[in-house]
């Protein structure tokens, strides 16, 4: 297809092909609700005529369909305005080492075994506590994906990965006092997942813990985010230092390279070559070779997250982050890294532990932050009662700089490796 693009007059071209297959099952109250086999492939290409760009895609891989897709992409490019920043990443930056990061672990599981495992998970959850009154659903999924990327520099790269997950959502209580929660496990290799019974029991434990919530007075309180919520705060930082937000001038961290964005004891390191990492890759979405590098070192922003296009718009060089950030580690000394969740609670002392965030009240330009929240009230390092229908508010600049601790209770289900995060005081709007 790259050669076909050249024959139509394109001076540059890039093509991506994705093929996947998978199995997913869903059960509820001992019955099978869904059973799906998936299999598909698709192709997308982009051509460049000078600074003019055209893209097209299709899911039909017959030669005549591919030829038609090439013609459509070229026709689109001929009718677009030139953009001096458009084009492939520099040829000298292409990856030369394909790498093998242990991301391919197909799970030889058939539908009957998958259903049995999902049912065992649900049963373990229902039997864990008499207060579990209903089930919202339990699902198991497995998938295999192969991606191939080629461009007119002569680069050809292949990536492949497997993903497996099991989740369970339960309901506790009755009437207006019902509460819902869930748990899930996710890994590249099935043997790295939690057992079905452990997932069900954890879902039950989290659900019943939310029963009988009580109000919290409105005011400034110390706040801690569990790992799943803590990575959303890091996600806001990543969005703010991404090229698209920067060249559009829609980031609260404009022109901040070389200045503190986190406390001086905290660093963020991108490690794209980690064995069995959820986002390990030898190259980014443009074929640029990835490498381990600091994003934040000792609290100071070391660089942005740039593709070749956003880098050109900003007069900089790509950071091999076309398609997003790869495995990101939060590094902190022991003095600011509680050993586990209980140690993090002790470090919090008295305040709010947030286990759920709701709404989209985040302004990416100013950093103003206001979101609905639920979780637990803690006194003297011990959980006292559940809380819900709260709002926590602040500004992301202050929240990031004010981080007091990041726990060692890292959630392995994400490429952003963070534990529980103590943010210090925030405004909490509760009852009264």
TrEMBL record:
Sequence ranges assigned to domain Metalloprotease TldD/E central in this UniProt record: 105-211
Key word Amino-acid biosynthesis present: no
SUPFAM superfamilies: Putative modulator of DNA gyrase, PmbA/TldD
Matches recorded under Pfam families: PmbA_TldD_1st, PmbA_TldD_2nd, PmbA_TldD_3rd
UniProt domain Metalloprotease TldD/E N-terminal: residue ranges: 13-77
UniProt GO MF annotations: metallopeptidase activity
GO terms classed as biological process: proteolysis
Bilayer-spanning residue ranges: none
CC per GO annotation: cytosol
Name the record gives this protein: Metalloprotease PmbA
Gene: pmbA
């Amino acid at each position: 297809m790259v050669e076909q693009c050249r024959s139509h007059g394109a001076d540059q071209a890039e093509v991506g092909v994705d093929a996947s297959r998978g199995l997913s099952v869903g059960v509820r109250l001992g019955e099978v609700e869904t059973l799906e086999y998936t299999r598909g492939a698709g192709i997308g290409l982009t051509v460049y005529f000078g600074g003019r760009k055209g893209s097209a895609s299709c899911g039909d891989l017959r030669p005549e369909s591919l030829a038609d897709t090439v013609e459509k992409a070229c026709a689109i490019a001929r009718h677009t305005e030139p953009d001096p920043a458009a084009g492939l990443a520099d040829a000298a930056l292409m990856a030369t080492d394909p790498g093998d990061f242990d991301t391919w672990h197909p799970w030889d599981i058939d539908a009957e075994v998958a259903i049995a495992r999902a049912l065992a998970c649900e049963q373990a959850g229902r039997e864990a506590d008499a207060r579990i009154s209903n089930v919202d659903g339990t699902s198991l999924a497995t998938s295999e994906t192969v991606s191939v990327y080629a461009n007119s520099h002569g680069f050809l790269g292949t990536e492949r990965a497997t993903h497996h997950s099991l989740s369970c959502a339960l309901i506790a209580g009755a009437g207006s006092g019902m509460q819902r929660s869930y748990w899930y496990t996710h890994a590249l290799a099935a043997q790295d997942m939690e057992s079905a019974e452990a997932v069900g029991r954890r879902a039950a434990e989290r659900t019943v813990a939310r029963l009988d919530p009580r109000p919290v007075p409105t005011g400034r309180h110390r706040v801690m985010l569990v790992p799943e919520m803590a990575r959303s705060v890091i996600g806001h930082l990543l969005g703010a230092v991404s090229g698209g937000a920067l060249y559009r001038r829609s980031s609260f961290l404009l022109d901040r390279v070389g200045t503190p964005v986190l406390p001086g004891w905290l660093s963020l390191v991108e490690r794209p070559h980690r064995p069995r990492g959820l986002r390990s890759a030898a190259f980014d979405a443009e074929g640029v070779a990835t490498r381990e590098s600091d994003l934040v070192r000792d609290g100071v922003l070391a660089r942005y997250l740039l593709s070749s296009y956003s880098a050109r718009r900003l007069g900089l060089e790509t950071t091999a982050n076309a398609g997003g950030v790869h495995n990101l580690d939060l590094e902190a000394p022991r003095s600011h890294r509680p050993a586990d969740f209980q140690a993090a609670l002790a470090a919090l002392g008295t305040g709010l532990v947030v286990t759920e965030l709701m709404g989209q009240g985040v302004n990416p330009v100013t950093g103003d932050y206001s979101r609905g929240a639920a979780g637990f009230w803690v006194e003297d390092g011990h959980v006292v009662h559940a809380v819900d229908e709260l709002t926590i508010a602040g500004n992301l600049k202050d929240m990031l700089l004010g981080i007091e601790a990041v726990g060692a209770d890292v959630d392995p289900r994400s490429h952003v490796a963070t534990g529980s995060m103590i943010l210090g005081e925030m405004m909490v709007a509760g009852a009264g």
